[in-house]
Amino acid sequence: MVDRLIVRRRDEWARLEALLTSRAGARSAEHTEELGWRYREASADLALARREWPTDPVTRYLNNLVERAHRRLYRRRHDTPQAVWEFYRDTFPRLFRATFRYTLAAFVTVLVGFVMAYIATFVRPSLAESFVPGGSGVIETIKQGRTWFDTPPAERPFVSSFIMTNNIRVTLLCFAGGVLFGIPTVLVLLQNGLQIGSIAGLTQVYGIHGALWSFVAAHGFLELSVIFISGGAGLRVAHGIIQPGLRSRRESIARAGRSATLIACGCVPLLIVAGTLEGFVSPSALPGGLKLLIGLTTGVVLYTYLLLGGRGADDRSGYVE
After folding, report:
1. Which end of the chain is more exposed for a tag (fewer CB within 10 A), N or C?
2. Which residues are CB-neighbours of 200 under 8 A, at least 6 positions away?
3. Which residues contact 238 (CB under 8 A, 6 or more apart)?
């Protein structure tokens, strides 16, 4: 009976009505996300009503409600530059703050791998080959007291392109691993920590650690931040799968997946900048102090943006939770 549908779904329809008439937070990501999934639910109710009760007033009501929601959701889709600007101005930094605990967990995972490998390699350098699979050439170069990153200027555009591609691959692995309960994400983060820690420990043993840190200084803040953020996005998806909370598992996964996808997209420009710095600035003959200044500046700018961007009267940075 149509009365059963009305009784069961009227609260959800009323909430959709409220979203359509509300002005408070109408431009926030939370508002848009909830409007989207309630619109899809109402569309499913409308399909049922059209099939079972095509002439009933509730069908006309739902048709009007769905039309209004559709207009609200898609009225600005054509304005792509504006949407992109609003995403980077507001949505991305809010998402970062909303998922910060997952980003912090990713950071801790990398840090644990780094500390373990650094100490182990410093105490027993032969362990480096276990922590850096396929890196025998790099390890032998370090043992000879030389570095491996003195890229000739003519090759730097190609190296930069390769680095960007590799960084995007690592970012996607961290993000996509969330759908497998976060296990691949944790493994990728841990592997990165082990490799970096092992190289750092080995360069310390052979007395070329200063050259390593001079090389890393310019791009390290951005590159590592992207790894932490994308790893956190993967862990966010895993948490939505494992512990949906009061939401249905389907809804929890959808919300977590959407926010994680947006975070991964937001990291792309950061990867481009980090790859450019690593390909052109890091291997250059610039003084180490200047490279460190560049790295610190990019770090300060990045985290000022992430921590302060998108704040305002309708800032609800915790909405993905």
Report:
1. N
2. 114, 118, 209, 212
3. 177, 178, 179, 180, 181, 182, 185
Structure tokens at 190: 């841990």
Per the listing, tokens 């003084």 go with 287
Instruction: Spell 81-117 as b/e; 16+ CB within 10 A means b.
Output: eeeeebbeebbbbbbbbbbbebbebbbebbeebbebb
Instruction: Map tokens 């009760």 to a residue.
Output: 53
pLDDT digits (tens, 9 = 90+) for 227-286: 899 898 888 888 888 877 666 667 777 777 777 788 888 888 888 888 888 888 888 888
C-beta atoms surrounding 174 within 10 Å: 31
Q: Map out the domains of the chain as residue ranges.
A: 2-75, 89-308
- Whole-number Å distance between alpha carbons of 160 and 280: 7
pLDDT in tens, 17-49: 888 887 655 556 667 777 788 888 888 888 888
| Token pair belonging to 231 | 């790893």
- For 281-290, which contacts have Cβ atoms below 8 Å and span 24 or more sequence positions? 281/218, 281/219, 282/149, 282/215, 282/216, 282/217, 282/218, 282/219, 283/149, 283/150, 283/151, 283/156, 283/159, 283/215, 286/218, 288/210, 288/213, 288/214, 288/217
Q: Chain-centre distance of CA 293, in angstroms? A: 26
Cα separation, 170 vs 188, in Å, equals 8
Rounded percentage of the chain residues whose pLDDT exceeds 90: 18
For tokens 């890091």, what's the residue? 282
Q: Cβ distance 269 to 47 under 8 Å? A: no
Residue for token pair 């043992």:
143
Q: Is this structure's pTM higher than 0.90?
A: no
- State the residue for tokens 């994308």: 230
